[in-house]
Design a protein that fits this description.
about 220 residues; alpha+beta; Pnp Oxidase, Chain A; globular; binds flavin mononucleotide
Length: about 220
Protein backbone atom coordinates (compact mmCIF):
# COMPACT_ATOMS: atom_id res chain seq x y z
CA UNK A 1 0.00 0.00 0.00
CA UNK A 2 1.13 3.56 -0.74
CA UNK A 3 0.39 6.23 1.85
CA UNK A 4 -0.66 9.48 0.15
CA UNK A 5 -1.85 11.55 3.09
CA UNK A 6 -2.68 11.68 6.78
CA UNK A 7 -5.75 9.45 6.63
CA UNK A 8 -6.15 8.48 3.00
CA UNK A 9 -4.33 5.36 1.89
CA UNK A 10 -4.46 3.91 -1.60
CA UNK A 11 -6.67 0.85 -1.45
CA UNK A 12 -8.56 2.20 1.58
CA UNK A 13 -12.33 1.71 1.73
CA UNK A 14 -14.01 5.14 1.86
CA UNK A 15 -17.56 3.80 2.03
CA UNK A 16 -17.92 4.91 5.68
CA UNK A 17 -16.70 8.48 5.05
CA UNK A 18 -19.84 10.58 4.95
CA UNK A 19 -21.15 13.87 6.25
CA UNK A 20 -24.63 14.96 7.28
CA UNK A 21 -26.02 17.98 5.39
CA UNK A 22 -27.89 20.04 7.97
CA UNK A 23 -28.30 23.26 6.01
CA UNK A 24 -31.37 25.36 5.27
CA UNK A 25 -33.02 24.57 1.97
CA UNK A 26 -33.49 26.26 -1.35
CA UNK A 27 -36.92 26.67 -2.91
CA UNK A 28 -38.47 28.54 -5.84
CA UNK A 29 -39.41 31.50 -3.66
CA UNK A 30 -35.78 31.98 -2.60
CA UNK A 31 -34.47 32.37 -6.12
CA UNK A 32 -33.64 35.50 -8.12
CA UNK A 33 -35.28 36.09 -11.50
CA UNK A 34 -32.13 35.05 -13.35
CA UNK A 35 -29.20 32.74 -12.55
CA UNK A 36 -26.61 35.52 -12.72
CA UNK A 37 -28.21 37.43 -9.86
CA UNK A 38 -28.71 34.21 -7.94
CA UNK A 39 -25.03 33.34 -8.50
CA UNK A 40 -23.99 36.74 -7.17
CA UNK A 41 -26.11 36.24 -4.04
CA UNK A 42 -24.49 32.88 -3.35
CA UNK A 43 -21.04 34.12 -4.27
CA UNK A 44 -21.19 36.97 -1.75
CA UNK A 45 -22.00 34.40 0.95
CA UNK A 46 -19.11 32.23 -0.18
CA UNK A 47 -16.76 35.22 0.01
CA UNK A 48 -18.08 36.09 3.47
CA UNK A 49 -17.37 32.52 4.57
CA UNK A 50 -13.66 33.20 4.00
CA UNK A 51 -12.95 30.79 1.15
CA UNK A 52 -9.47 30.82 -0.41
CA UNK A 53 -9.96 31.43 -4.18
CA UNK A 54 -13.77 31.31 -3.91
CA UNK A 55 -13.84 32.01 -7.66
CA UNK A 56 -12.05 28.75 -8.53
CA UNK A 57 -14.21 26.59 -10.79
CA UNK A 58 -13.78 23.42 -12.77
CA UNK A 59 -13.95 24.06 -16.51
CA UNK A 60 -14.94 20.95 -18.44
CA UNK A 61 -14.40 20.70 -22.16
CA UNK A 62 -14.77 17.99 -24.74
CA UNK A 63 -12.18 17.06 -27.34
CA UNK A 64 -12.76 16.31 -31.00
CA UNK A 65 -12.19 12.65 -30.08
CA UNK A 66 -15.09 12.80 -27.59
CA UNK A 67 -12.92 12.56 -24.47
CA UNK A 68 -13.86 14.98 -21.68
CA UNK A 69 -11.23 17.07 -19.91
CA UNK A 70 -11.56 19.13 -16.74
CA UNK A 71 -9.34 21.53 -14.84
CA UNK A 72 -9.59 24.43 -12.40
CA UNK A 73 -9.60 28.00 -13.68
CA UNK A 74 -10.58 31.29 -12.07
CA UNK A 75 -13.82 33.11 -12.70
CA UNK A 76 -12.89 36.74 -13.34
CA UNK A 77 -16.15 38.40 -14.24
CA UNK A 78 -19.83 37.63 -14.38
CA UNK A 79 -22.56 39.64 -16.03
CA UNK A 80 -25.87 39.06 -17.76
CA UNK A 81 -24.07 37.50 -20.74
CA UNK A 82 -22.01 34.92 -18.97
CA UNK A 83 -19.09 33.73 -16.89
CA UNK A 84 -15.64 35.00 -17.93
CA UNK A 85 -12.26 33.29 -17.59
CA UNK A 86 -8.80 33.95 -19.03
CA UNK A 87 -6.24 31.58 -20.46
CA UNK A 88 -3.76 30.82 -23.21
CA UNK A 89 -5.48 30.56 -26.61
CA UNK A 90 -3.13 27.77 -27.74
CA UNK A 91 -3.72 25.62 -24.64
CA UNK A 92 -5.54 22.31 -24.81
CA UNK A 93 -8.62 23.81 -23.17
CA UNK A 94 -8.71 26.69 -25.66
CA UNK A 95 -8.44 24.35 -28.64
CA UNK A 96 -11.34 22.34 -27.22
CA UNK A 97 -13.42 25.44 -26.49
CA UNK A 98 -12.80 26.82 -29.99
CA UNK A 99 -13.50 23.52 -31.71
CA UNK A 100 -16.62 22.42 -29.84
CA UNK A 101 -17.92 25.83 -28.74
CA UNK A 102 -19.21 24.08 -25.62
CA UNK A 103 -18.28 24.19 -21.96
CA UNK A 104 -19.38 23.30 -18.49
CA UNK A 105 -18.38 24.97 -15.22
CA UNK A 106 -18.62 23.50 -11.74
CA UNK A 107 -18.29 25.50 -8.54
CA UNK A 108 -17.82 23.38 -5.43
CA UNK A 109 -18.34 25.13 -2.11
CA UNK A 110 -18.56 22.09 0.11
CA UNK A 111 -18.18 23.98 3.41
CA UNK A 112 -21.52 25.64 2.61
CA UNK A 113 -22.92 22.39 1.17
CA UNK A 114 -23.33 24.12 -2.17
CA UNK A 115 -22.57 23.41 -5.80
CA UNK A 116 -23.32 25.37 -8.97
CA UNK A 117 -23.20 23.77 -12.41
CA UNK A 118 -23.22 25.76 -15.63
CA UNK A 119 -23.61 24.49 -19.19
CA UNK A 120 -23.29 26.78 -22.16
CA UNK A 121 -21.67 28.07 -25.28
CA UNK A 122 -18.07 29.30 -25.20
CA UNK A 123 -17.02 32.40 -27.12
CA UNK A 124 -13.80 34.41 -27.15
CA UNK A 125 -13.85 37.89 -25.68
CA UNK A 126 -13.07 40.85 -27.91
CA UNK A 127 -9.47 42.13 -27.91
CA UNK A 128 -10.67 45.22 -26.05
CA UNK A 129 -12.20 43.15 -23.26
CA UNK A 130 -9.08 41.00 -22.91
CA UNK A 131 -6.86 44.11 -22.96
CA UNK A 132 -8.94 45.62 -20.17
CA UNK A 133 -8.37 42.65 -17.88
CA UNK A 134 -4.71 42.20 -18.96
CA UNK A 135 -3.95 45.73 -17.75
CA UNK A 136 -5.07 44.79 -14.23
CA UNK A 137 -2.77 41.74 -13.97
CA UNK A 138 0.41 41.90 -11.92
CA UNK A 139 3.53 42.31 -14.06
CA UNK A 140 4.83 38.88 -12.98
CA UNK A 141 1.65 37.20 -14.26
CA UNK A 142 1.95 39.12 -17.53
CA UNK A 143 5.54 37.93 -17.99
CA UNK A 144 4.46 34.41 -17.10
CA UNK A 145 1.94 34.48 -19.93
CA UNK A 146 4.76 35.27 -22.37
CA UNK A 147 7.00 32.58 -20.87
CA UNK A 148 4.51 29.69 -20.93
CA UNK A 149 3.42 27.77 -24.03
CA UNK A 150 0.63 26.37 -21.92
CA UNK A 151 -0.10 22.63 -22.31
CA UNK A 152 3.07 21.86 -24.29
CA UNK A 153 5.72 19.44 -23.00
CA UNK A 154 8.84 21.06 -21.48
CA UNK A 155 12.00 19.12 -20.64
CA UNK A 156 12.53 20.66 -17.22
CA UNK A 157 11.78 23.60 -14.92
CA UNK A 158 14.95 25.41 -16.01
CA UNK A 159 13.44 25.81 -19.48
CA UNK A 160 10.50 27.69 -17.98
CA UNK A 161 12.71 29.88 -15.83
CA UNK A 162 14.89 30.77 -18.81
CA UNK A 163 11.78 31.69 -20.81
CA UNK A 164 10.65 33.92 -17.95
CA UNK A 165 14.06 35.63 -17.73
CA UNK A 166 13.98 36.22 -21.48
CA UNK A 167 10.51 37.79 -21.16
CA UNK A 168 11.79 40.05 -18.36
CA UNK A 169 14.66 41.20 -20.61
CA UNK A 170 12.39 41.76 -23.57
CA UNK A 171 10.00 43.98 -21.61
CA UNK A 172 12.52 45.80 -19.42
CA UNK A 173 11.51 49.39 -18.73
CA UNK A 174 8.16 49.25 -20.52
CA UNK A 175 4.65 47.94 -20.15
CA UNK A 176 4.12 44.30 -21.07
CA UNK A 177 1.77 43.94 -24.06
CA UNK A 178 -0.89 41.26 -24.04
CA UNK A 179 0.26 38.39 -26.27
CA UNK A 180 -2.09 37.52 -29.13
CA UNK A 181 -2.17 34.00 -27.71
CA UNK A 182 -3.69 35.07 -24.39
CA UNK A 183 -7.22 36.26 -23.66
CA UNK A 184 -10.65 35.53 -22.32
CA UNK A 185 -13.66 33.35 -22.92
CA UNK A 186 -17.24 33.95 -21.98
CA UNK A 187 -19.37 30.94 -21.15
CA UNK A 188 -22.95 31.90 -22.05
CA UNK A 189 -25.18 29.44 -20.21
CA UNK A 190 -28.44 27.85 -21.19
CA UNK A 191 -28.54 25.85 -17.94
CA UNK A 192 -27.45 26.78 -14.41
CA UNK A 193 -28.12 24.49 -11.48
CA UNK A 194 -27.97 25.50 -7.81
CA UNK A 195 -27.51 22.57 -5.43
CA UNK A 196 -27.98 22.85 -1.70
CA UNK A 197 -27.13 19.88 0.51
CA UNK A 198 -29.98 18.71 2.79
CA UNK A 199 -30.46 15.96 5.38
CA UNK A 200 -30.93 12.33 4.31
CA UNK A 201 -29.54 13.06 0.84
CA UNK A 202 -32.81 14.82 -0.13
CA UNK A 203 -30.80 17.69 -1.50
CA UNK A 204 -32.33 20.69 -3.26
CA UNK A 205 -31.51 21.03 -6.95
CA UNK A 206 -33.05 24.02 -8.66
CA UNK A 207 -32.16 24.42 -12.32
CA UNK A 208 -32.57 27.52 -14.41
CA UNK A 209 -32.90 26.83 -18.12
CA UNK A 210 -33.35 29.14 -21.07
CA UNK A 211 -36.79 28.75 -22.56
CA UNK A 212 -37.49 30.90 -25.62
CA UNK A 213 -35.09 33.60 -24.41
CA UNK A 214 -36.46 33.70 -20.85
CA UNK A 215 -35.25 31.90 -17.73
CA UNK A 216 -37.45 29.22 -16.21
CA UNK A 217 -36.69 27.06 -13.19
CA UNK A 218 -37.37 23.40 -12.49
CA UNK A 219 -36.62 21.22 -9.50
CA UNK A 220 -34.68 18.04 -10.17
CA UNK A 221 -34.60 14.95 -8.04
CA UNK A 222 -31.37 14.78 -6.04
C1 LIG B 1 -7.12 27.13 -8.35
C2 LIG B 1 -6.59 27.12 -9.77
C3 LIG B 1 -6.88 28.16 -10.61
C4 LIG B 1 -6.41 28.18 -11.94
N1 LIG B 1 -6.75 29.21 -12.76
C5 LIG B 1 -6.39 29.20 -14.05
C6 LIG B 1 -6.86 30.20 -14.96
O1 LIG B 1 -7.60 31.13 -14.58
N2 LIG B 1 -6.46 30.12 -16.26
C7 LIG B 1 -5.66 29.11 -16.71
O2 LIG B 1 -5.34 29.10 -17.90
N3 LIG B 1 -5.22 28.13 -15.89
C8 LIG B 1 -5.57 28.14 -14.58
N4 LIG B 1 -5.17 27.13 -13.74
C9 LIG B 1 -4.35 26.03 -14.30
C10 LIG B 1 -5.26 25.01 -15.01
O3 LIG B 1 -5.91 24.18 -14.05
C11 LIG B 1 -4.52 24.12 -16.02
O4 LIG B 1 -3.47 23.43 -15.37
C12 LIG B 1 -3.93 24.89 -17.19
O5 LIG B 1 -4.78 25.96 -17.60
C13 LIG B 1 -3.67 23.99 -18.38
O6 LIG B 1 -4.88 23.35 -18.75
P1 LIG B 1 -5.07 22.68 -20.22
O7 LIG B 1 -3.76 22.02 -20.56
O8 LIG B 1 -6.19 21.72 -20.05
O9 LIG B 1 -5.40 23.78 -21.17
C14 LIG B 1 -5.61 27.10 -12.41
C15 LIG B 1 -5.33 26.02 -11.54
C16 LIG B 1 -5.80 26.05 -10.25
C17 LIG B 1 -5.49 24.86 -9.36
Amino acid sequence: MVRVGGWLTVGMDLSMVREAYETAGLDFGDLAEDPFTQFQWWFSEVEAAGYWEPNAMVLSTVGADGWPSARNVLLKRINADGFVLFTNYTSDKAVELDTSGRASLTFSWAELRRQVRVVGVAERLSDEESDGYWATRPRGSQLGAWASDQSTVVPDRATLETAFTNAEKRWTGRDVDRPDHWGGYRICPHRVEFWQGRPDRLHDRLCYYLDDGAWSVERRSP
